[in-house]
Write a structure and sequence with these properties.
It contains ten helices and twelve strands. It is an alpha/beta fold.
């Protein structure tokens, strides 16, 4: 059965900041058929620049399916048994309400007048979306990186609606070094003269700033060993003793910077990285253990990556310990790979085995 894509228009969402988004639009995908009680539904939450398009052929206006190897008949998220639902995260430019969404009064993008949105807000928006789709409950919620933070918020905010949770390459709170990486990326965008305080015309916009931001991000998504094993000091072109020469690793970074510019919005990038910075399971809840008390007795799997520079494995292992302290069935597993943070998008064989094992142990 092909992936079914749609869009919901909901009345409003009150944000952590006290501000309101109205109306609220959510783009979504459905893969498989939901049970009436939602017990077979898996909510998959995408990462920073991903989308709700999980499997199947390319769709105009959306990036390629990012989990095609994991979602489908007979795969870890088996659409013969599971119904796999995904929403485009708020602030993402692929169909949900975002800074690039036109203001109803002016017809121009809301840009920096758009309110700051948190991972908690994103989880609440998805909860409203599931209600609108008639799905009362989730058999599981799964997310990687930013998606893992939102998945954790599901466990904290809606424990009665989630049977199990898998958090991949995401911490219980974003530590200062990751915030620092994000801030340098944002400054690259803000310093581009074509950013124009966020009020650039639809079209290219601050392409140099966004490209540079992505280049820095790509360094944090991989490990030194992965760079060394692929290229070490290989030269892509010319003579590096001259300024027209380029090492292979430089070529790699420029390629990924240019690729993102073609498909993403700079203001959306600012807002999504800020949402990551705001992620703190304990904020307003006393401490992270208290935040997860409602999930006691339920399985929560944290999957770390041995070579992750952005969210080191010990930060992800901490999620499992906190869940166990809260009375949940916390467990930790690790992807052994030199591919760094992006391993959950590369080392599918290991992740497939880990998720299948989680489903088997928890009767899903």
């Amino acid at each position: 059965m092909p992936e079914r894509l749609g869009r919901l228009v909901l009345p409003e969402l009150t944000l952590d900041s006290g501000k309101t988004l109205a109306p609220l639009e959510l783009a979504y995908s459905v893969n498989g058929d939901p049970a009436p009680d939602g017990s077979n539904v898996v909510l998959v939450v995408h990462a920073l620049t991903g989308s709700h398009h999980l499997m199947g052929p390319d769709v105009p206006g959306l990036p390629g399916a990012w989990w095609d190897t994991m979602v489908g008949p007979g795969k870890a998220l088996d659409t013969d048994r599971h119904c796999v639902v995904a929403f485009n995260n708020l602030c993402s430019p692929y169909g949900s309400t975002a800074p690039c969404t036109p203001d109803l009064a002016t017809g121009r993008p809301r840009a920096m007048a758009f309110p700051v949105v948190s991972c908690r807000d994103m989880a609440r928006a998805q909860a409203l979306g599931l209600e609108a789709l008639g799905i009362p409950r989730l058999g599981a919620v799964v997310g990687g990186s930013l998606g893992g933070m939102i998945a954790l918020e599901w466990a904290a905010q809606f424990p009665e609606r989630v049977d199990r949770c898998a958090v991949i390459a995401a911490p219980a709170r974003v530590y200062p070094q990751a915030i620092a990486y994000n801030e340098v990326q944002r400054q690259a965008i803000l310093a581009d003269p074509d950013w124009r305080e966020g009020n650039y015309a639809p079209g290219p916009g601050p392409v140099r700033g966004l490209s540079n931001a992505r280049m820095l991000a790509m360094i944090t998504y991989r490990s030194e060993r992965s760079f060394s094993s692929r290229w070490m000091r290989d030269v892509a072109r010319g003579n590096p003793h001259e300024w027209d020469g380029q090492f292979q690793v430089e070529s790699y970074l420029h390629h990924h910077g240019a690729e993102l510019v073609r498909r993403f919005d700079a203001n959306c990038y600012l807002y999504l990285t800020r949402a990551m910075d705001l992620h703190d399971l304990a904020a307003g809840r006393g401490d992270p253990v208290e935040a997860l008390r409602g999930f006691r007795g339920k399985p929560l799997l944290a999957v770390g990556i041995a070579s992750d520079l952005l969210f080191p494995n010990w930060q992800v292992e901490e999620v499992a310990r906190l869940a166990s302290s809260a009375g949940a069935e916390g467990a930790y597993e690790e992807i052994e790979s030199d591919n760094g943070h992006d391993s959950f998008l590369i080392d599918f064989d290991q992740l497939d085995e880990i998720l299948r094992g989680f489903w088997l142990r928890t009767g899903f």
